[in-house]
């Protein structure tokens, strides 16, 4: 029975984005499978809505029941369960706070964080909102918005949170060019005094920026000399979370 179940699962996996429709004989040949056994499996799937058979062409494609199961899984997705292990690993490797921030309209929303056990560390509240022009976490997303969106954010009087906060639109635009060129953003004491932040943007399956991932810590420990050392694990974490977002088509707006 287990062998039949494994075979049935293998049949379902043959229906891919590249090859969503199969004829019965064609599928049997592709799987090097006995025709009779395959048709029994296809008939069972068809009776339960997992496979549908075109009445004219007699070819098979995936059925509505699989879509319903997929939607149930999608509705139960927990962003914490999916992404927190990645942040925890990044925190452990770097010894600094790892932050997952999402783009929400023209603001940044802190969604997840993993903090080290160090007594002195950078901390941020989950659910807090921030402007996109200030700091690496947020500017790494701003850099990949269109010009109209960027103008809405920076072509108005901007608040200086520290002495290092960039508030000049031309200066910010020049910084955005650097971010687009190198793929990451770096800020020093711009949003919080004595805090260094290194961030990378995250894109969805349509190559639209939707989030960022950041390593942040006190400048006495997380110095600019450590940036090359932290870039690689940050990039790995970014790729992992980007893969999750693309795989499950997650949307935060």
Automatic annotation (TrEMBL):
Gene3D superfamilies referenced in this protein's UniProt entry, alphabetically: 3.30.450.40, Winged helix-like DNA-binding domain superfamily/Winged helix DNA-binding domain (1.10.10.10)
Domain of life: Bacteria
Domain IclR-ED: 65-247
Entry GO MF terms: DNA binding; DNA-binding transcription factor activity
PANTHER family attached to this UniProt entry: HELIX-TURN-HELIX TRANSCRIPTIONAL REGULATOR, ICLR FAMILY, HTH-TYPE TRANSCRIPTIONAL REPRESSOR ALLR
UniProt signal peptide: none
Organism for this UniProt entry: Lysinibacillus fusiformis
Protein name (database record): IclR family transcriptional regulator
GO terms (BP aspect): negative regulation of DNA-templated transcription
Record keywords: DNA-binding, Transcription, Transcription regulation
Keyword Hydrolase found: no
InterPro entries on file: GAF-like_dom_sf, HTH_MetabolicPath_Reg, Tscrpt_reg_IclR_C, Tscrpt_reg_IclR_N, WH-like_DNA-bd_sf, WH_DNA-bd_sf
Ranges of residues in domain HTH iclR-type: 2-64
Keyword Ubl conjugation part of the UniProt annotation: no
């Amino acid at each position: 029975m287990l062998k039949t179940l494994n075979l049935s699962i293998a049949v379902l996996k043959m229906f891919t984005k590249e090859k969503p429709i199969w004829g019965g004989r064609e599928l049997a040949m592709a799987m090097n499978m006995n025709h009779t056994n395959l048709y029994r499996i296809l008939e069972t799937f068809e009776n339960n809505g997992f496979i549908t058979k075109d009445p004219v062409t007699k070819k098979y494609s995936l059925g509505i029941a699989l879509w319903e199961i997929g939607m149930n899984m999608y509705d139960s997705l927990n962003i914490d369960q999916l992404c927190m292990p990645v942040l925890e690993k990044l925190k452990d490797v770097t010894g600094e706070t790892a932050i997952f921030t999402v783009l929400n309209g023209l603001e940044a929303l802190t969604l997840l964080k993993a903090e080290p056990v160090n007594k002195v560390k950078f901390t941020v509240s989950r659910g807090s909102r921030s402007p996109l022009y200030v700091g690496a976490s947020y500017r790494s997303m701003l850099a990949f918005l269109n010009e109209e969106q960027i103008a809405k954010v920076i072509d108005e009087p901007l608040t200086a949170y520290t002495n290092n906060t960039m508030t000049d639109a031309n200066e910010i635009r020049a910084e955005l060019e650097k971010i687009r060129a190198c793929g990451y953003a770096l800020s020093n004491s711009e949003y919080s005094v004595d805090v260094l932040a290194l961030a990378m943007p995250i894109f969805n399956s349509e190559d639209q920026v939707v989030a960022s991932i950041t390593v942040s810590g006190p400048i006495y420990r997380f110095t600019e000399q450590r940036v090359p050392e932290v870039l690689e694990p940050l990039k790995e974490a970014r790729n992992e979370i980007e893969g999750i977002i693309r795989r499950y088509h997650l949307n935060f707006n």
